[in-house]
Structure formats: structure tokens, C-alpha cells
Amino acid sequence: MSAVRRVAFVSPRFAQGSAIGGAETLLRALALRAQSAGREVVFLTTCATDHVSWRNAVPEGRRTIDGLAVHFFPVNADRDASRFLRLQQRIGRGQRLSETQEADWLRHNVNSDALAAWLSANAANLDRVVAGPYLFGVVHQAAGALPDRTLLLPCLHDEPFAYLRATRDLFGRVRGFVFNSEPERDLARRLFGLAPDDGRVVGIGLEPRPPADRTAFPSKRGLQAPYLMYAGRREPLKGTPLLVDYFGAFRKRTGRDLRLVLAGSGAVDVPRELKPHVLDVGFLTEEEKNEAMAGALAFCHPSVNESLSIVLLEAWLNETPALVHAGSEVMRHLCRRANGGLWFGSYPEFEESLIVMLDRPETRRDMGRRGRSYVLQEYNWPTVEAHLLAALDA
After folding, report:
1. Is the link from the previous residue into 133 a cis peptide, with omega within 30 of 0?
2. Residues 207, 227: Cα–Cα separation, whole Å
3. By the 8 A CB rule, do 235 and 265 touch?
4. Spans of all domains in the chain
5. What is the mean pLDDT of each run of 10 residues along the chain (394 residues)?
6. Strands 68-73 and 61-65, bridge-based pairing
7. Sheet containing 341-344: order of strands
8. CA-CA distance, 385 to 199, in Å (whole number)?
9. Regarding beta strands 259-263 and 227-231, do their DSSP bridges make them parallel or antiparallel, or are they unpaired?
10. Class of the 216-378 domain?
11. At the top level of CATH, which class does the domain 6-205+380-393 belong to?
């Protein structure tokens, strides 16, 4: 097995400023790590920053960011965003599309013909292409341009989009796969009949650091009561409406003075009677985010659509236990492996889990410590880098 030298990473957005998502953060981190390991790396992305409109917002062209060569390409100007969203919503509701409608969904997706043309023109100078996530047109275009050299980083969930013809075609076209977790890999094998050696679990590395000061955030924000925290995109697919609903029910049923802290982007619909008890902090600096995690009773991740959760790993680094949705096989797997949290599949389980966190502080602290130990052991950069380089060279 010889080492490949020249690698292009492809992502619909580049993780910087407000354009930050888990997949984009992961691809950027892996690109930087591959470069630090001596590989020649370029990063290809679009000029979009907003994950809803996908308008071209930054200038196209090549720039060097943190030592990484990043090429920005425009999203196709002829995409019909309204048509795309209508089809996207139908797929999300589980409605089956015709072959023509699926083709329309892909045609009006987030595509960049300029990015695909660059890949084709520079094929002789590339040994591997790492592209993801699977839902985006630019990823399908990358796989179409250099299928025999493309490793798909799918960020796959058991969701209606995974059952599209276009998705099956994509998984059948590429050279191999980079998975975030064992449950994601196992799902891909079940859905697409992959061979055991078709992909490797890589994940992401986190820099080891001591837990943040758990008193700093509550002190700065004037929080006297314990609080539950969520960080990330606030939208139905991430489960935030469910979290707000369950939080309100918990306060009403138990009379316990628990607060909810929400960090990240997106609108949050909070009932008027709950607003005094919900603190929406929006985007936080890394320092503030870690302090908020460290001070939380628990970090709650209500999403069922995850292939990995960087924010969950970050919460564990701060010795904060997790409370996750049982509908996510990946999140249950992580909590079980780490022994670092609890999971709920219904409101009664949510309530019971929070009461355990509130009334059994030593149990809660022990879960947080175990979570931190798990991250330090499994998600350190030397381990992840070895998996990444093995995937590139396979």
C-alpha cells in the first residue's frame, strides 16, 4: 500500500465565520491534518455561506486560510431554489419522487459546474478526492468527475434521502468511504450492500485540554438555577422544537427550576410563558462555548439525524454528561461506549433522566468524567490521523 500524495477535499461550504456546520468543520479539520502529515492538499468549496439560501456570498478564487489552499467556486446561477425546496420537502416527508423529479431535485441542488470543471481539468494532479456530505450536488459532481479516486464522507443517516435512486447511484460509483462512526458504516452496509473493506471509520480528533471553568458562564450570565444546554443549528431536523416542548413540560410537571441555554444559529419558537427560562445566546466564542458546556447540568442533543456529534464530544471534554435522543443509533452508541450519558425516546424518559441528573450529582459527575476519558482515548488526533491516512492510501 503506497502513500497517496495529492488530495482534494470537497465540501459545499468552508467552515469559517458563520458558515459552520458539523460536516464542514470535520472536512476542514481532516484536510488540515492530512496536510500536516505531509500530503499536498487543496480544499474546494462554494462561495455560499448560508445553508438555506445558498447565495454566493464570498468572492470566487483561491485563498490561503490557516495555511490551507482553499478554492471558492460559485454555486450555479441557474438553480431554481423554489423548485429544489419543494422537492426537498416532499422527500423529507417520505413521499416518493419519480425518476424525473429526483433528477430535478439533483439539478437544482447546490451544484457548481465551475468546481466540477476544475476537478476534471486538474485530474492529472490529484490522487484522491474526499467529498461530503452525500446530500449535496457538488458532492455528486465530484464523484462524477473522478469516481475512481473519490472517497465519500457521507454523514449518512437513516432518513428518506438515503433511499433515493441518486443516493444509491452515488454510493455505487465512488472508490470508497470515510465514515464517522460504526453505526453509520453499518447502516451504509445494510442500505447499499457494501463489502466489509469498502470504507473505514475515521471520525475527528480533538485537542486535549482541561475542562473549562464551570462557574464562569453562570456567573457572567446571572444564572442561579441549573441549566440544560444545546448548541448547533436550531431547526426541526435537529430536534430543537422537541427539546423546547419537553423542557416546558418538565418545568410544568415537576415544578423544578431548570433553565435552558440555546447556542448556535436558526430561529427558536419559544412559548411566551417559557421565555424567562430560556436563554438564547446565539453564536459563542470557543471559550464561551466551553464555559457554557462546563457549567451545564447536561448537554442535550435531541437530533436523530447524526453520523457523529462534534459538540457532544466537546461537551464530554468539559466533563459534562449527555442527554441524547434514543432515535439516533449513533448517539446511543456513543453514550453506551463512553458510559457518558443517558438517552430518551419519550417525554417520561426525558423527565426521568433529568431528575437523575438533578438528584444524583455524583452519578452525573461520574458520567461526565467517563465521557472525557472516552474522547481522550478514541478521538485524539494521532489515532484519527492514522485512520485517515490509511483510508486515503487503501
Report:
1. yes
2. 26
3. no
4. 6-205+380-393, 216-378
5. 89 81 91 96 96 93 97 97 95 93 96 98 97 97 97 94 96 96 94 89 93 97 96 90 97 97 91 96 94 98 90 97 96 96 98 98 97 96 95 93
6. antiparallel
7. 278-282, 259-263, 227-231, 298-301, 322-325, 341-344
8. 15
9. parallel
10. alpha beta
11. alpha beta
